[in-house]
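Render this sequence as a predicted structure.
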Amino acid sequence: MRRAVVLAVSVVLTAGAATAPAAAHFPEPVVAEQLRMAGASVAARAAGAAGIDFGACPSDSGLKAPVQCGTVRVPVDYTEPAGAKIGLLVSRLRAAGPASVRQGSLVFNPGGPGASGLWYPAVGRPGVGAVTRKVWETAARTYDLVGFDPRGVGHSAPLSCPDPAATRHAPGADPRAATAAVKAAKRAEARRRAESCGARGGALLRNMRTADLARDLDVVRAALGEPRLNYYGVSYGTYLGAVYATLFPSHVRRMVVDSVVNPDPRGVWYGANLAQDVAFERRWADWRAWAAGHDAVYGLGGTPGRVQASFDRAMRMLGKRPAGNVGAGELHSAAVQAAYYDQRWVSFAHLLSRYLRGDDDPLIAAAAPDPGAAKDEENSEAVYLAVECSDAAWPRDWNVWDRDNSRVARQHPFETWANAWLNLPCASWPVEGGRAVDVGARPGSGLPPVLIVQSERDAATPYEGAVELHRRLPGSRLITEAGRGSHGLISFWNECVTARVDRYLVSGATGDRDVSCSGHPLPVPSGSGGAKDANTGRFY
């Protein structure tokens, strides 16, 4: 999945949201938003009448019967619902249970922005891993499982911003090294990428805000024949769900949000990235402490400091002499994945240990770029930028970026500059950033209780985000996995969490209080570097 970013309250940096000049009676953005909402209503009625003609899925989707696919037409620009349209590819697996237990469709978004959810119905098919089958068993029995490619993604009018001059080539350099020369090169690369996206994106690029994706979600709901939406969102999918709940509160039936992006508009999205850097440093420390506790297996050092020294030594070695197409940049990316998911802790410790002992093979197998995935990765990054750069205002002055990221990197170097380079095209993005949606349930809105699930030490979407969304959605319930930090609780088995999610999906019951669940077991290495852990499988 693409990186989600989130606000940690303690380090909010407000970028100075752009404000539009007032019209005669209403600010222009308000009038435009009213037109878009009216257009969404028109599009939903049309989609409800047309339905979805489900059939075989595209051959390149990897989805086979009984999973089916169909297309939903949505306006490119919701202020012109009769204008140009694109098709969103939707996938579905019918509920496995009898008619007496079925409750309609459960629509899923795995995050990003820029991630495809088309694969989701496959979690209900025979042959999936034991953990996946166990986690999704109740949902697959009760609901038609529905995934889709959001606008711009995969099979849904894919965005692309190719620029050969700006293409990153492996092996990559250590992203923590932000010298003056590196900063100048990265600034030029970011400008080229933004210009390339502007040249190729057309009208779709101007209509890629999260609110546009939320309107698409309502059109999909109508096309499925559902009077109200059942929704499960992970990571950025939680922000999409929160915006949907704000814009269409009476259209929500059940909503689970898992690993929550902080919806506070002051942090969407520039300040959020800086806050995320702090959280990643904390999570990286968790891995180092775990690896130090298993020094007898990996030999990386018996203290977190010595484990850090081993990692730094490997980064220097790869900077001088890459292992094939794997340089320091690729090792760092693998380390970031370990910070996302403790399911990756064993494999990352193993490949780092073997590399330092002279064996490149595990590192190359895990971290070498896959040429076959390059097209999908470029599409995912294009959508990521298109959504986040246009969702809210970003600083246009490089001096602001340099000042803020330099300050954070002094104490939190692990992820800060890598995160900055990913998002720097937003400083020169061709679509002016809008005003972030003020997420929340208004009195009398009709929004039912929302279920929020969150691990306490998640780096990609820190815990403060779940607390903030909980505050903004009266009647919601928060389930916390204590002492753990894996991103996406639905990717592993925790009976305390999963039982409450299942109960909510079946009955709508959230319980009368928030709940803290004990953390799932951490992975335990074997002498060969393998894992004795039932939670090693993950789907995104």
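Summary. The mean pLDDT is 91. The first strand starts at residue 68 and ends at 75.
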